[in-house]
Each structure stands twice: as structure tokens, then as C-alpha cells.
Amino acid sequence: MRVLEAAIFDLDGVITDTSSMHFKAWEELAKEIGIKLPKEFNEKLKGISRMKSLDLILQFGKCKCSDLEISMLADKKNNYYLNYVKAITDANLLPGVLECFNLLKEKDIKIVLASASSNANLVMKLLNIENYFDFIVNPKEIKEGKPDSEIFIRAAEGIGIKPCNCIGIEDSVAGIIAINSCGMFSIGIGKKEVLYMANICIKDLKEFNLEEIQAMGGFI
Ligand code: BG6
Ligand code: MG
Fold it and tell me: For the chain, which domains are there?
């Protein structure tokens, strides 16, 4: 028997369009070191930590860097990213986010954040949505990034609810793998061709349909 008790949200690309800001910052940095990133590369970077992303970009550009250079490049990317982030307001919430949160509150379903971003608290503050959350995972406490399910397991533990009674909402392939592998019901935000592993795929949270999710997930 499965009861829907909690919804675990990713932030970047699910609640707000910071995925494109992360990618613009990476593109800017990559250009400086002579690497041209194709648009499709963003799918590989979504959900992945800053250092892992940089590693993938350097591998793609066949660039060898010292540890010091790597750390400086990562800081530089973050500064570029923060430059975009500082303009965020609640107008940057993606369609359907607040309606979805309000519906979950009304149904007494807990709301949790499982973002890999160390900038998540700042973004949440700028979006003015912190009060909706029952628990926010501290990404610094997570050893294995997505696609490992550690962050989603921690999210469920944080509110004392079994993973099978949670739904996970993600825009990244890595995140969907993480959700599926801990037994949560997965909802992909984005294109079906990319997120084909998700239990349900929707364009944005405007299409979030609780009854359909409950039926498909076998929740009572
Ligand atoms: C994830 C994003 O949420 O956070 C990734 O999808 C990003 O693109 C990662 O690299 C880490 O974010 P930050 O803000 O700590 O560099
Ligand atoms: Mg994301």
C-alpha cells in the first residue's frame, strides 16, 4: 500500500529557469578557455555538481588543468552564475509552481527541496518561496551527487517519510535516475524524448495533475 505523503522538488529547471543561467555561465567560461559548448551539452550538465560539470567540460575540450586552475575556473563560473541570479524575483517562478505548492499544502502533502546547488537558498529567498518548504536538504551533507539517490533518500528522511510514499520532480536525466532508484514515483519536467525514464513527463508544473499521478503511481 502506497500513500502520497510528500513531494520532493529539484530547483534548477523545475521551480525556476536557472538551468539556462547555469549553462550561460558555463558557456561564457568555456569560451574563455577556447571551448565551444554545443547547446545539447546542457542535458549532460543538468543536475550534476559544479566540479563534475567542469570536469565534463574540460574533458570535452580536451583541456588539462592543474587543481589550482580547476578551482579558479569553478569560482569564476559561480561568479558568472551569481551575476545572472541577482536579477531573480518571484516573476521568475516557472508556470504552475505556486498553484502546485498550494494544492499540495491543501492536501497535506509535505514539500521538500532536493537541489544539488549551493546557491539554492539564495535563489529560494529571491523567489520568496522558502515558507512553502517542510525541509530543505543541505547539499553540503551529500557525498554522492545525482544520479545517486542519496539526496532524495535524505529528503525523505528529513521529514520521516518512506521513499515509496514520495514523488520526485526533476528536469534532469541524472535526477530521474536518482528518484527511480530509491523507489519514488518520478515526474519529469521537460521533453519526453530526453526524460523517457520518468514515470510521467510534463512540460511544466501547470500540467501537474494530482489525480493522474495518484492513479499512475498506485497511491491510495
Ligand atoms: C544543479 C544544477 O541543480 O546544481 C547544475 O542542475 C549545477 O547545473 C548544480 O551545476 C550545482 O550548482 P551550484 O550552484 O552549486 O554551482
Ligand atoms: Mg534541475
Answer: 6-17+91-217 (3.40.50.1000), 19-85 (1.10.150.240)
